[in-house]
Amino acid sequence: MTIIITGAAGFIGNHVARLFVNKYPDHKIIALDKLTYAGNLENLADLEGKPNYRFVRMDICDYDSVLGLMRSECVDGVIHLAAESHVDRSIKDPLAFATTNVLGTLSLLQAARTAWGERPEGSEGRRFYHISTDEVYGALAMDRPDGGDGPGGGPWGSRLFTEQSPYRPHSPYSAAKASSDHFVRAFHDTYGLPTVVSNCSNNYGPYQFPEKLIPLFINNICLRRPLPVYGQGLNVRDWLYVEDHARAIDLIFHSGRVGDTYNIGGFNEWRNIDLVKTLIATTDRLLGRPEGADLDLITYVADRAGHDMRYAIDSSKLSSELGWKPSLQFEEGIERTVRWYLEHRDWMERITSGDYMRYYEDMYGNR
Ligand code: NAD
Ligand code: TYD
Predict the structure, then answer these.
(1) CB proximity list for 121: less than 8 A, separation 6 or greater
(2) Which atom of ligand 2 is nearest to the CA of 86?
(3) For residue 264, what is the domain's CATH number?
């Protein structure tokens, strides 16, 4: 198979590309990325030179180029992760999110439909896999405000998002992702494009851009900078180690039912403030500082506009139908993650200084 992975130079994309390149030597993997501020070619450096791997710099909104690539490479599969992904940025610049997440996805869908429609065997054996988020479902109630083990649901609330939950996006980011999900399903229902969609909870792990909570806070703890906790820090997120997400993507791409949707989550809900305290304790311990020495860095700041209270995913369909479950306990995942950022201070510094942007030029010429 020849597979395009869009957004491969981003956080989740590089883990998916690494898994596919190493696990499937007979698949040809094309890592496609526009290299926006969030794309970092250094994240893919260990794959350079592998015979079944190639990087292509391309904007998914550039329909003619995407179609040209799909035709010339006889692409059989698309794993679509490219997106604008940060909620705070979407509040400042919603149009950029509509352009990439909605129109970019539409451009890819149309290119796949056209290229596959031209082949004698049509869409047979092909797959267009769209990676989405649990944020499309909106926010869940915190109806167990003290935490607890009531029957069903999660520790902080009695309901979880299932594949049947209605779409109720609140941020421009989640609204754009919701719209792209609808277009993917419309291409399946209208044109018979062999699509599959998954909606995943918050990911964490190595190579995450340090605008997101976990890498931003680890870096700030190292540098003893304030940790800006939005509102009262009581919002709940369901955290999944990124390599577990990549494994789920592999499984769904190869064995998921065409036209179907799978939720992916860690059954691992944390209030932001509790997570931040765990990050401080772990980072301090690994740096040899007295544990909790940096608790005073916690700084409560104005809440995010439209801040969703709680996300929590029911991934039992994926477990029962395809046998997936998270492999890592959260404590182990956080320890591994903090260690990685501490051992890759140079990676972090090249991002915060802007130097990572030069990596592409060194490899391929002007950016
Ligand atoms: P990211 O921001 O780290 O990476 C996105 C990548 O897409 C970057 O490399 C960027 O350069 C690329 N890109 C952006 N616009 C592009 C365009 N027009 N053409 C080509 N490439 C473009 O994001 P991420 O956290 O890795 O998320 C990847 C996908 O997974 C997104 O679709 C996101 O909605 C989804 N998702 C993320 C999470 C999470 O917790 N991070 C959870 C669930 C779903
Ligand atoms: P984030 O990593 O941006 O992911 P998402 O908004 O997609 O869930 O944020 C995770 C949670 O942390 C979210 O509730 C917002 C909160 N947060 C802060 O409190 N401070 C910060 O500086 C950031 C980036 C996030």
Answers:
(1) none
(2) 3
(3) 3.40.50.720
